[in-house]
Amino acid sequence: MVGIRSYGAYIPRYRMNRMVIFGQMGWLNPANIMNAQGEKACANFDEDSLTMAVAAARDCAKGFDRSEIDAVYFASTTAPFKERLCANLVAGALATEESIRTMDFSGGLKAGTSALLSALDAVSAGNARNVVVTGADSRLGKMGSPQELMFGDGAASVLVGTDDVIAEFKGSFSTGHDFVDHLRGANSIFDRQWEERWIRDVGFDRFIPEVIGGLCEKCGVQISDFSKIVYPCYFGGERKKINKKLALDAEKVVDNLQGTVGDTGCAHPLLMLAKALEDAQPGEKILLIGYGNGCDALYFEVTENIKKLSPRKGVSGNLARRAELDNYPKYLVWRRMVPADTGLRGEEQKWIRWSLIWRAHKAMLGMWGSRCKACNTQQFPPQRVCVNPDCGAIDNSEPVVLSDAGGTIFSFTADMLAASINPPAIYGAVNINGGGRFVFDFTDCSQEDLAVGKSVEFSFRIKHHDPEKDITNYFWKAIPVS
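-> structure tokens emitted (482 positions)
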């Protein structure tokens, strides 16, 4: 049986009320008041599509043996690199084996469902046993545009395999159209969209019914057979129109999270699927649709194994973990939409030594440490010589993954002099559970959230961005546990 074994999600901690944005930019386009309801999820200053994809993948892989993952697919239209395989970074952060298939998917908003289809094909053909598919986006709309209000940041992930499947894959149908509703050139930062009526009437209103009809005919089912129907469309009126056109029961149509998250691009179908799986019951049929330059439609049936899957943080857990972002200029600086002066220290040239990064890539990406075989002393970063003064064994250690270990705060400092676009820079020493002490940056918190002895968890984040060379470096940071 081929299908989904697990799911995960990630929504950034910060949420911005859309009226905050409209209050600053409504003078430019007063009609935008129609899009200013609810709130949108905003990535922190040290987050991007890659870090969010890692967070969702970690949530998905919780409780599974990562050595059994033999493929990682990453989908995004806002990947941080054009020529560096981001799926390798995701796999490294997951601490998978390096004998693994990795692949990036991009180019359109249905990249997330296309990656999922490719994973299902690979497992069905026997070319892979377990594939992690993770999608994330952090799309930008120009200041004052409808997209600025409608877009949100987020990620979702599924594990595809054959054992203990929670949702069996039953079939699919796809269409491809060079239909330009959203467009971003190779060197463009901001999304550009054509007339909204064009997007609604020709895009959503035609392509979604088309792909649903194709799937139903191919698989011999009726739309009424599905218990949960997942399709992205951030136009509220258009969703009602499609529901009426297809005679869909409103209770079966999964919430598109527009009022709490916003449209997360190619991750959105997977994010809505994760929400649907949170309360899915055995026997339910799920219809998943990815939209963008055509459509993908996938048909799943929930199995009894859904009851055995350990709880995920998922969509609900991430929605409950929120903090208000009520500073619009701060949002603009965090997303690099406007420049900010971080002082002379911020102008320091920080050369990237790729040979050093390669030598330490396991420790940096997967947070691999070492454990002495002689005395069981754990250390990070990994060491050739045991740090236990009563041992001192040389080259007698084994690797150990510490990203899930967590730790406790040993010391912390809030530094107003360090160059940061989110001052003060907060960092300190953390005692890693099981052994080892290392200096980490703290994130997703304020100084008041920290205390010596408080528990922390580790999160893969942006460590440094070089705007001159357009290079982003990543490492692990500590987040205080509520």
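The CA atoms of residues 209 and 246 lie 7 Å apart.
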